[in-house]
Amino acid sequence: MLQKFALAFKTKTIEFFAEDEEEEGEERESISAAVDLDPVPEEIITGQRVVVLKPDPLPQPPQADPETLIPALFATLSSFQAAYLHLQTAHSPLLPDAVRSADRTAVSHLRRLSDLKHSYLQNPSPSSRPVLPLSSHLQAQVQENQNLLRTFDAVVNQLQSDIDKKDAEAAALRQRLRDIEEANSKLARRLDRACAPPDGKVEALLSIGVFDSVLKDTCRVVHRFARCLVDLMKRSGWDLDLAANSIYPNVDYAKPGHCRYAILSYICLGMFGGFDSAGFCLEDSGGVGSDGIDVSTRRMNSLVQFIEHSTVDPLELISGSPSCDFAKFCERKYHQLIHPGMESTFWGDSYHGESMWGSLQSSSPLYEPFVNMASSMWTLHKLAWAYDPAVEIFQVAGGTEFSMVYMESIVRRAVMFGSDHGKKSRPKVEFTVVPGFRVGKTVIQCRVYLNDLKEAV
């Protein structure tokens, strides 16, 4: 205010003296004219003083002290933090207007920080520092608190957005669960109607086609495990011919690769061992046969177990219930098929301790294919014991003459005998590869390897 008044007073003073100078000039001209006309003696005026008025100096703004700088610095930093947080939240979901606004705000605070840096770091002497319009100490604290509130508000908004998203996902999962439960209840009602003996639905479900379909799926899984085992034997340096000869000696194979049928037979017959017992060779699962058990109860229990096991993952079942009957079945069958001597040649002593040889371990490369094969065997067994009478299993001993009623050659288009080759005798069985089954009065042929096939193959 004083500065403005001084400037105004200075201007008026200059104008006043300028007018006096103009009037004095005019008087001098008139006097000079009079002097020219009529010169008079010069008169000197004494005792006159000249007063010169000068404006007051401009007030200098106070130099910024560190007590004001530090709060301003923290307030600017908190402002930048809040602006940057708003910039981040504006990207998810993307809001272009909010992104541009937050970006401009963040840049302005960065410029403010840059000004503070250049003002107070590049000019260490207080007298040489340019004066910056810093806020007061209390104003800086208020600004910092406001920025903290904006930061908290952005965080709360982000958390609320996450909560809303999780609530939406939970609602969708609850709806999906209700749909699954409703579908399961419908399937349960259909199963109850299908398994109800008065309606005769069990016989419709337990047909020969159903058993044959499950048997073919089981054979495919066994073939996959056999391929894995054979590949592992070849990588470990095994001689497949010697291994096949140890299983079935003195067999004249039609082709060198047919020795794999002996290994497949070893796996199939080993896995199907005990198939004719209700417990599948588990002494604590009902013993052998079905004596003392009501037929309808046995059929219903077997059918329920068949359906339940068909809907679960066998790997998860073993890991979740390591003491269940299926886990015990897998452990026993693995111990019968893969003895410790085979494992030591496959992986060596460095794979795991000697105490673990002959036991099914999840770290073994054969773990997953073996569990899947055992699961198929377990499912087929439960289905077989749901029939009335239970499905019977049979196999053919070596040296038995081939019968097209009960047998099928494992080598396709290999059964060429009689008048086609001028032979009077039928070919004989070397060994059974896949056993056969009797479902009521229907026979599912066993698959065998025949001798003297070199002319037919």
From TrEMBL:
Keywords: Coiled coil
Coiled-coil regions listed: 156-190
Domain GIL1/IRKI C-terminal: 393-449
InterPro entries per the UniProt record, alphabetical: DUF641_pln, GIL1-like, GIL1_IRKI_C
Gene Ontology biological-process annotations: negative gravitropism; response to red or far red light
Residues of the DUF641 domain: 67-190
PANTHER family: PROTEIN GRAVITROPIC IN THE LIGHT 1 (PTHR31161)
Name the UniProt record assigns to this protein: Protein GRAVITROPIC IN THE LIGHT 1-like
Natural source organism: Elaeis guineensis var. tenera
Taxonomic classification: Eukaryota, Viridiplantae, Streptophyta, Embryophyta, Tracheophyta
